[in-house]
């Protein structure tokens, strides 16, 4: 971060002792669950319910390798690995595989491409690619996801947290079977 000085530009780092330190605990915002609530839902992918996070800051549509296996999605070996940069420095990985699967959400019923990524908590993340392609509206003010004029049923925060907490993400087959779905 550059800070202008009268005579020169100098670099000031957040950890530098010269940076003003605020001791007042009231300066830190209170993080309330209401403001951090996500938009997530169960959406069928190849007929298997996936726990999906809608993410307006994600420039890819992602699916976990475990869920690709469960829903028998078509796997694509990428000829050129694609870089994936998360929101923090140093959080880089490579995407080596893609998958195609049918997604059913409101009036949308199409085969869709996903990057196969080892994501946490959710089976799938639908980002700006999906939202733009199908004119999906993420309405954070009213806690809803719209496909055209149709509102998609979302998990309430308590239900989503409970669903996520109960799931064993490293045992996805067990989760599918416990939720009354079949894997053939």
TrEMBL record:
Pfam families: RVP_2 (PF08284). It comes from the Eukaryota. This is Peptidase A2 domain-containing protein. InterPro entries: Peptidase_aspartic_dom_sf.
């Amino acid at each position: 971060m550059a800070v202008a000085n009268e005579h020169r530009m100098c670099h000031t780092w957040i950890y530098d002792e010269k940076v003003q330190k605020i001791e007042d605990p009231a300066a830190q915002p209170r993080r309330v669950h209401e403001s951090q609530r996500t938009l997530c839902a169960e959406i069928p992918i190849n007929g298997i319910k996936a726990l999906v996070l809608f993410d307006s800051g994600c420039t890819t549509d992602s699916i976990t390798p475990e869920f690709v296996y469960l829903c028998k999605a078509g796997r694509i070996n990428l000829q050129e690995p694609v870089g994936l940069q998360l929101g923090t420095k140093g959080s880089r990985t490579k995407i080596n595989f893609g998958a195609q699967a049918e997604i059913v959400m409101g009036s949308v019923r199409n085969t869709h491409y996903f990057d196969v990524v080892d994501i946490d908590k959710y089976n799938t993340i639908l980002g700006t690619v999906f939202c733009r392609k199908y004119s999906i509206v993420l309405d954070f003010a009213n806690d809803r996801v719209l496909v055209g004029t149709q509102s998609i049923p979302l998990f309430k925060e308590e239900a989503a947290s409970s669903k996520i907490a109960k799931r064993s993400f490293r045992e996805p087959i067990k989760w599918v079977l416990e939720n009354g779905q079949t894997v053939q």
